[in-house]
Design goal:
Its main location: membrane. The protein has one domain. Helix content is 62%, strand content 4%. The chain contains 15 helices and 4 strands. Helix 4 runs antiparallel to helix 5 and helix 9 runs antiparallel to helix 13.
Length: 436
């Protein structure tokens, strides 16, 4: 911690600029990556015109939005309408400030960590900024003066409240296991490999927490998708129901700001999952094999490789799963993720209180994970209602609802206009015949 206080201000500002540039470039790459992967899943080319392999397509789309007309509705609250996207973007970029991307390196004559800053409870900063960021969505919907926007903002608020609890409980399991709340300290705690024997077979595995805390890792992955409003949990902006949800009345750069914040939140949550469960910037093999793999700037490769793998999970989910119904979505959060997290925390606390060794911790972790999986299957198991014959007599089509055979379809408004014009012409013609 003392290392950050010894860094001069100009170097900290330079690192902050570097973090900002990296996040913006990652957003542009993630948009292109998402479109190419989904196109591959749907057997079509995807963006391939602007730049090599279409890499400049995201930049072209951003410039197109920047030059579009900026419209503010007359019914909108002007100050709040402008402040909402600023809140969302500021919280998104702030959260990445405490993410460790590598060890201490020599930079412009100073020894500094590849991290903007760190403190004792730095994990809580990311959770706090992600929770405050939803205020941008809520204020955007409220200030727009549109019913679609208000419904989208209410969904965003309910979604964050529901999935923030499951996300916090998954992070709490990491606190239990490591006895630490600092991001860099949690990465260092995962440096020692797990060695032992399981069912008489010796093993040596990376000391990453996703092995011991597998249920927490799965819950965290599900909750982070809900936290960032991504498919299949993109209900606040469901285009089939709410046009564009909280962003319906926005245009130009203000509209782009919300999606910039969304993709930055995706990168931040992927980096948080990497730090808490996947060893952070540690290499994916024992460091004794290649000591230089955890030194200098090379750990950036391992860190961003893991982040890109988790971003692929986001894209994979979007390309394969349909959007959940809202009641299904809330039921998953409150009736499955939260109870499973609480049961797993009790099991983990019992393991830690018992003072189990590392091999025993792995064994009990697998047993606890199996118990949580069984509990989850019981909760999700579909219950079939007994068959009850319908009181409505069968119309000869197997009980399917069909319109009546004598149904008369009313004419469309255009048809009504044409009918009135035809009747007017007939009346005029008949009056001319009478006069003649």
């Amino acid at each position: 911690m003392n290392t950050f206080s010894e860094i001069p201000f100009w170097l900290t500002a330079l690192k902050a600029l570097g973090v900002f540039v990296v996040l913006v470039l990652l957003v542009l790459f993630t948009i292109w990556f998402e479109r190419r992967v989904v196109a591959f899943m749907q057997v079509r080319p995807g963006p391939n015109r602007n730049g090599p392999f279409g890499l400049l397509q995201s930049l072209a789309d951003g410039l197109k939005l920047a030059f579009k007309e900026d419209i503010t509705p007359r019914t909108a609250d002007k100050v709040t309408f402008l402040a909402a996207p600023l809140i969302a973007v500021t919280c998104a970029f702030t959260a990445f400030a405490v993410v460790p991307m590598g060890p201490e390196v020599s930079m412009l004559g100073y020894t500094t960590p590849l991290q903007l800053t760190d403190f004792e409870v730095s994990v809580l900063l990311i959770l706090a900024t992600s929770a405050v960021g939803v205020y941008g969505l809520v204020l955007a919907g409220w200030s727009s003066g549109s019913s679609y926007s208000v419904l989208g903002s209410l969904r965003a608020a309910a979604q964050v409240i529901s999935y923030e609890i499951a996300l916090g409980l998954a992070v709490l399991a990491v606190f239990f296991q490591s006895q630490l709340t600092s991001m860099s300290a949690i990465v260092n705690a995962q440096s020692e490999p797990l060695e032992g024997a399981l069912f008489g077979v010796s093993f040596s595995l990376p000391g990453w927490y996703f092995l011991i805390l597998a249920p927490s890792f799965v819950i965290f992955l599900i909750a982070m998708v809900g936290e960032t409003n991504r498919a299949p949990f993109d209900l606040p902006e469901a285009e089939s129901e709410l046009v564009s949800g909280f962003a319906t009345e926005y245009s130009s750069l203000k509209y782009a700001s919300f999606f910039l914040a969304e993709y930055v939140n995706m990168v931040t949550m992927s980096a948080l999952a990497t730090t808490l469960f996947l060893g952070g910037w540690r290499p994916p093999f024992p460091e004794s094999w290649w000591p230089a793999a955890a030194e200098g700037y090379l750990p950036l490769v391992w860190f961003f490789g893991k982040v890109l793998a988790l971003l692929f999970v986001y894209v994979w989910l979007r390309g394969t799963l349909p959007r959940l119904r809202y009641d299904q979505f809330m039921r998953l959060g409150w009736k499955v993720l939260v109870p499973v997290s609480l049961v797993w925390l009790l099991a983990l606390a019992a393991i830690n209180i018992g003072g189990a060794s590392e091999s025993a911790a792995v064994r009990w972790g697998m047993i606890g994970g199996a118990a949580v999986l069984i509990f989850t299957l019981i909760m999700l198991w579909p219950t079939r209602k007994p068959y009850e014959p319908s009181s409505v007599p069968d119309g000869g089509v197997g009980g399917y609802p069909v319109p009546p055979m004598d149904l008369v379809v009313p004419p469309t408004p255009r048809g009504l206009t044409e009918l009135k014009e035809k009747e007017a012409l007939e009346i005029e013609a008949s009056s001319e015949r009478k006069e003649s």
